[in-house]
Amino acid sequence: MNADIDVTGVRLVTERLILRPFEKKDLDDLYQYASVEGVGEMAGWSHHRSKEESAEILSTFMEEKKTFAVVLKESGKVIGSIGVERYSPDALTEAFYLLKGREIGYVLSRDYWGRGLIPEGVLAVISYCFDTLGYDFLCCGHALTNLQSQRVCEKCGFSFLKETDYYLRSGESRRSCMNVLLSPKRFGRDTYE
Ligand SMILES: CC(C)(COP(=O)(O)OP(=O)(O)OC[C@H]1O[C@@H](n2cnc3c(N)ncnc32)[C@H](O)[C@@H]1OP(=O)(O)O)[C@@H](O)C(=O)NCCC(=O)NCCS
Q1: Is residue 112 part of a domain?
Q2: Per the domain annotation, does 7 fall within a domain?
Q3: Quick one: how far is CA 43 from the chain centroid?
Q4: Which residue minimizes the CA distance to atom 8 of ligand 1?
């Protein structure tokens, strides 16, 4: 089942990043990375065509309280996001039906790719979900062709569960791959390594 999440007041600090809820002042930074063609498309959403579109998404982030802004410590700039999203039960197997979890989703400004920043942020979110919120599992899906996201999953300890069809807002589907990570506290490390 989908677990509860509310990132209000949460601040996760890693070596290079601060993860915190989105704020109104983040609009320019959000528009800057989300308007680059080809980046959002890898995650199943279209790049933003206007600052108004980014403002709507920003309001949604602030209302839904499930998305962390990824702030680069050295500049204070928001360079991406990590969401603790609802998953579709069909994307998992029966073994997960009674367990409590969520799906991790992420995007990073193209200017910062390849420095291990998202794995660093995702590891902090994983610790928060397991150690503070007591989740049983996390999952993370990506298009079969998205090898960059696959590498993030591998680096963060997720294991392949199954192939699935992921439906975009447009109604189109994409062949995707679902990965899972069980809480080491609840299940012991051996079960997923
Ligand atoms: C997926 C994403 C968040 C990875 O973030 P990141 O901080 O760059 O992650 P990493 O630095 O660990 O890089 C992951 C892999 O991307 C690849 N990569 C790195 N830099 C790259 C670049 N400039 N161009 C293409 N691929 C690159 C490498 O294969 C790397 O794996 P490696 O470290 O084993 O070589 C980022 O690529 C992104 O925002 N992509 C678009 C949105 C998206 O796909 N979201 C996930 C939806 S499921």
Answers
A1: yes
A2: no
A3: 10
A4: 113
113: CA distance to ligand 1 center in Å? Answer: 5
91 has pLDDT over 60: yes
Q: At 57, which CATH number? A: 3.40.630.30
pTM: 0.96
The ligand 1 site (C-beta within 6 Å) comprises 39, 42-43, 106-108, 113-119, 142, 146, 148-149, 151-152, 155
Report yes or no on 56 lying in a domain. Answer: yes
**Domain range for residue 47?**
12-191
Alpha helices in the chain, H assignment, sequence order: 27-34, 40-43, 51-64, 117-127, 147-155, 184-187
Farthest-apart Cα atoms in the chain, separation: 48
Per the domain annotation, does 108 fall within a domain?
Answer: yes
